[in-house]
Amino acid sequence: KVVIDNHGAELHSIQTLDGTEYLWQGDPAVWNGQAPNLFPYVARLTDQKYTFEGKEYSMKIHGFINAVDLYVETEERDQITFRYDSGEETLTQYPFPFIYRITYLLDGHTLKITNKVENIGEKRMYFGLGGHPGFNVPLEAGLSFEDYCLEFSEKANPSRVLFTDDCYRTGENVDYPLEDGVRIPLRHDLFDRDAIVLKNVDHRVTICSDKGKRAVSLFFPDFPAIGFWHMPKMEAPYVCLEPWRSLPSRKGIVEDFAQQEDLVALDGGKIYVNKWSVDILE
Fold first, then answer.
1. Alpha-carbon span 105 to 88, nearest angstrom
2. Whole-model pTM?
3. I want to staple 236 with a disulfide (CB 3.0 to 4.6 A). Which of 45, 93, 98, 230 is the partner?
4. How far is CA 166 from the centre of its chain?
5. Which residues, other chains included, contact 245 with Cβ-Cβ below 8 Å and sequence gap of 6+?
């Protein structure tokens, strides 16, 4: 069973038939988010600002789609599509006319998510896009956070995107060796300096434990980066798996959207489609 709020089209619950909740339920004392959708930017802009065609605009962290109400465009028993149309309230901070859609399809134990961005203007538009779902860890009674790991389905030699202490890109990447080439054992202090963002990895990662049966797997074929996060310097009982189509601003640089190389560039009248999915394993 899946529950989705029209505010931000945000996931609020993923439960199996026995009532086990897999999605982090939010706690203001820890992190009150659950699974915000990120559009039209991922993470932070320097001074919350960027430029386009010589004009400066202001936008908060992770864009604005997570903070607006979307309406239900279509709904079936196992599928729902939310839609948001640009207007005066968006054009002041993002100068592109667009239609944003997100579809959730429940197929057995797999939740398939499809993002569609339609450029209804004439100019080329630029945007970032991502997901931010948090999952409960541990997933079973009697296990601890440290009993779990993040496991990729194939061996890789990833690079970690480096960030400053205030979470801007430094512009540098470093090697990030994985245990046995596939695994990151979980510890709370992994996130003391905020998110771990990796590139050059396989496009499936699973939260799992050798001591348990329940697991969550994320498949993100259309994303070049994946972030792992929980609230820094806390023993927070969840981990966010964050597929990112783009990266945040560089430290001290107010980015020009037409020049930031990792943003999606979408010509007028075109539609961009991006898919990812969550598998519940038990």
1. 31
2. 0.96
3. 230
4. 19
5. 42, 128, 129, 130, 222, 223, 224, 225, 262, 264, 274
